[in-house]
Every structure is written in C-alpha cells, then in structure tokens.
Amino acid sequence: MTPGNAGVELADRHLDLGEWAAATPDADAVFAAAVRRWLAENLTGRFAQLRGRGGPGSEHEFFAERLEWDRHLAAAGWTCLGWPVAHGGRGATLAQRIIFHQEYARANAPARVNHLGEELLGPTLIEYGTAAQCERFLPGIVDVTELWAQGYSEPGAGSDLAAVRTTAVLDADAGRWVINGQKIWTSLAHLSQWAFVIARTDPQSTRHRGLSFLLVPLDQPGVTIRPIQQITGTSEFNEVFFDDATTEAELIVGSPGDGWTVAMGLLQFERGVSTLGQQVGFARELDDLIAVAKSNGAADDPEIAARLRRARIGLMVMEANARRTLAGDIVSAAGAASVAKLLWAGWHRDLGQLAADVVGAPILLGPSHTSEGRANDLADPDHVELDDWQRLLLFTRADTIYGGSNEVQRNIIAERVLGLPREARP
Length: 426
Description:
Blueprint: H1 3-12, H2 17-23, H3 27-42, H4 63-75, H5 94-106, H6 115-128, H7 131-142, E1 148-151, E2 167-171, E3 176-183, E4 194-200, E5 211-217, E6 223-227, E7 238-248, E8 252-253, H8 259-270, H9 274-296, H10 302-326, H11 333-359, H12 388-395, H13 406-417
Parallel strand pairs: 1-4
Antiparallel strand pairs: 2-3, 3-7, 4-5, 5-8, 6-7
C-alpha cells in the first residue's frame, strides 16, 4: 500500500488503524484526507439535506433519515473507530479519532443518533461487561440497529445520582430483575430500544452503595415513556416509568452493588474525543455570529466587539484544555472532566446570550424576522419553526444543568482534586 492510495483503501474497508498508522508515512494526514473525501462524496443526494441537522435543540429533525445516515456510516466502517478490532471497532489511534470528529464537524455533517451507544455504553461494556454481554450488544451498536437511552436522573436524583430510588429486585425463580421507579430527562428514550439503568438493588443501602447497572429493554408492558416538551418546542427528553418491568438476571454489568463504579466509569467516557468535534461546531457558531454582527452593525458597539473577542479567546482555552486532557497531562481524570464541562457549558450559554444581543429584538419574533437564520423550507413534518439563533438562545439555557450541573462540577473539583471539606449533605 502506498501513501497515495492508502486513504482510498482506508475508506473502503475495515482495518486495524493502529497497525496501519505505524506502517504508513504521514498517516494522520492521509487519514484526514480519507475522512474528508468520504464525507464530501457521501453527504450528497438524499443525505445533502441533513447537513447541520439534529444538533442540540433539534434532535427530532429528520430522525429516520439521520438513522439511515448512521447506518450508511456503519456500512463504510466509520462507526466505533476507537473500539478494539476484536469488538467490531477499527482500532483507531487517539489522534485519528480526534481527526474524524473534527472533519465530521467541519463538513457540517448531521448529528449522530447513536452517541449513547457508541461513545458511552459500548466502551463501558468493553471495560466492565461480560463476554456474553459484549457479544450480544456490541454488534447492534456498531451497525446502529439498536439504540440506547440513559436511565440515570430521577425527579429526586438529578445531579445527585447517589439519591436514586428506582429499585430492582432479583426474582431468582424467574431469572429476572423486577424494576420499579421513575427516570426523567431521558434523552431519546421514545426512539430507543434499550436503556442502561441505575437502580437500587439493596433495599437497606443508602447513597452510592447498593446500586446496580442494568440493561433494560424498553419495548415491554412494564415501561411507559412520556415525552417532555422543552422551551424550544421539541421533545428530546422523556419521563420513563417502570412498573414491574423486567430484564434478564444476567443483564447486570458488574456485580450487584457495583453500579456506582460502572456508572462513574461511563461518565468518564462522556467527555471523550467528541468534545473536539463539538468545539468545531462552536467555532462555526461564533464565526457566523461575528458575520451577523458585522452585517447589522452590532460589531461597531465596543462592548459587543469585546465580548466577541473574549468568546474567541474562550474557545482557544477550551481547545487547549481538551488537548491537554486527551494527552493525559492531567492530575485527576474526574477533575479534568469537570473542568471541561464547566468550560464549554458556561461558554456556550454565554454565546447564546451574546447572540441575542447581536441579533437584537428580531430574535424574539418569528424565524422570518431573523434573516441570518436558516430557511424553514424543510421536508420534515416534525420541524419546529425556530431559526438557528433562537434555538441557540433557548437551548443553551440548559447547558450548565444537564450532564452534571455547574454546582456539582465545582464540588467535584473542590473535594476530589483540591481536597477541600465535603459539602454538608442531609
């Protein structure tokens, strides 16, 4: 294989990219070119309308078509890049995984529908699951035939995950766990076939002790899913009720009572290489906002101009921190994840407010009044009449809450990294 045709072969068949990179000169550049070319050649035809669709606040848009796109990616071998080859992945290096996410974002490719399975559950099963669990579930994640939801938060246990009250009791005779309780803010549960659920399996336990990590089918009589309408008018989130729902006894990841360890391990995967791709999207939003500010005169306001410059600097800090974290130049993995969440959540929320100040009063009116927004001529019956700036303003209100609130992230840094006294808890 020569460097000139390496990228073509890479895009057309599965390879152990770790071995390939070691044998190929300038492997990362060739890999980037292969990703870029494949996206350019495939984000066409029926997939062309999906560019930029399905991001935060618009996860409902073109869902069936984006699912088809994800399966198209899978058929070409572009899913689960960093997984070991033995588990259906491609053994990509860290650098190549970063490249893929960045090129994907630069191409304005649609948001993936399988993030929870590919980036969170899959690596967790590889780390903590049994061989039988990996054999059963990993192929469905790789080829995007089974979608997953995350059953963590509850009405009384949002950021405080250790307060979980959903219970699971093992019926040894039936060989099944019987689950009762309620989960909330469950992203895309109404479109998923399975959920990984944290439940209390020791009724005498408190806090993080006595929890277990279960794999639960959602298509069963004991599960009720109710979408929650958000301020954007969309319903990504759901309530999920378990009323004597069941799952097989062997579908517990780790031992009974080890759920906290598994859950925390999964959350570390959540802050992975995809964050650098996310930042490419953030940069595009900032560039577009600067263009609006220049066109409508808002950039002539010294305060607005200064805030735009600070936003650019903040984005550079965010990227530098992400690269430092991924390179392993950190003191605490838990602290690094919390710092990253604080950086991007606060920055993105502030960008939403800055967009409101740049666009001005039209952002409060209908989409036709914000001319820089994307036209709403979509062939998608579920499309909600919001333009990009309205969606950015509204959805970023939640950035500092979901995925662990800012207050919780600061507590983690204070207690686990700085060694400060724990916050008083009831």
